[in-house]
What we know:
Layout: H1 2-18, E1 21-22, E2 54-61, E3 64-72, E4 77-85, H2 137-141, H3 144-147, E5 152-155, H4 165-170, E6 177-180, H5 182-203, E7 212-219, E8 223-231, E9 234-244, E10 247-255, E11 261-270, E12 278-283, H6 285-296
Amino acid sequence: MKLVTLVLLLSALFSLTLMEVVNNFDKSKCAEFFIRSPNKKTIITPTVFKGYQYKMICQRWKNKHQFATLFDTERRIPVYSAYRFFGQMETVNLSLSENIRTEEWKNEPQLENMKNPSDMREISGAEMDGFFFQAVNRDYKESSNYTNIAYTRGHVFPNQYGVNQDQADSTFTFTNVAPQTQHSNGRWADQVETPMRKEIMVACKPDYENPTYIVTGVVPGTKWISIRRTERNKPKTIDKGINIPNYYWTAFCCVKTDDVRFSKAYLALQNDLNNKTFELSEMSVNILNSHLTRLYKQDFSVFGGLCLT
């Protein structure tokens, strides 16, 4: 009996170690992706919404936790992803200056059933009908059938910020993307992701000892992409399948000295009735917190009381 009990206990501990969907971020294996208080003892996470549909995910790929995501299973889009930027990409190929876009789109099995393996993985077409709480590749490919607009898979944690190819590949998961028009996706990459990366390199000079902490998220809109699933051998259309966000936002913070932090934030209105809409605002993190509190209709803070200016 004692032996059986010990085996069950070890099995439980092992499964917890591998767990992808977690109960909290600050005590999880992905706490490293969040900024710490000045005493470096307290993990400061962005606001975590309460509700059955919000799931905290330690995004795991190639047996390593790559970044963290708060995911909305009702809207099938992330609230935000948190990650660190170290600057120069790791590579054994000195001629390789940027990550390669593999376009291998993956899903998170544990969102459907906690008994599933913890690593994200690419699923087959036949498996897609079993994924109800997240988007699948078919949903985006067929988006124009329902909206007359072919929505792209807009990264929250961008591929180009990956420290190595494995981390870059891990960003291609449906728990890290939300619908963007092609116009908005291109503008966000050109006007936010690329220039912000350059600014961080100059102002923060990130490295492994002093990474820059970044949180990127979306604000839900009122429009949806319909999706289809097969339930009990019958095709079913879910009208409120994937929410189309009204806003994308991002904020970064780095520690320049023990007492000085540098931070900035961006907020973009997009995906409006006119699919060409893209209105970008640059601001302090404190102002972004105010905007997000208004837009989410509840108090919201990206870095707690840190990095406000």
